[in-house]
Known about the structure:
Blueprint: E1 8-13, H1 29-44, H2 49-56, E2 58-69, E3 78-88, E4 91-100, E5 103-116, H3 127-133, E6 136-137
Parallel strand pairs: 3-6
Antiparallel strand pairs: 1-3, 2-5, 3-4, 4-5
Amino acid sequence: MLSDKNTFTHSLRVRYAEVDSQGIVFNANYLNYLDVAITEYFRTQGISYSDFIKQYQLDFHVIQSLIDYRNGAKFDEVLEIQLDPSYQSSKVFWAFQMKIGDKQICSGTLTYITVSHVTKKIVKVPETVVQLLHWKKREA
């Protein structure tokens, strides 16, 4: 769901296989949750990620992931993943936070670089993609 402020929210229930011996989500799984939420973001904008690559001949590569862990999510809890996308030149920023109710689980930013699917070279995010995906421009 995309709000008026361009924030997208996706709900995801923690599965048993995603928790560690302490009964909380293993920290690397939060990156998987972000990947799922970003994929769903594309769908809500009217295009699957696979179709996006085919149509625009672009792909995104993760160049940085920053996560601030606050609390651990547990098996069967429902995470609310909020994404606030923006871009600057060839970079795409996915500011995020994950909550269970009012409890902050983690937050941070995932940074992508835009790459031509054909040449494998870094390219600027085209305006047509900005319009399609409703990304806001990030100021320097």
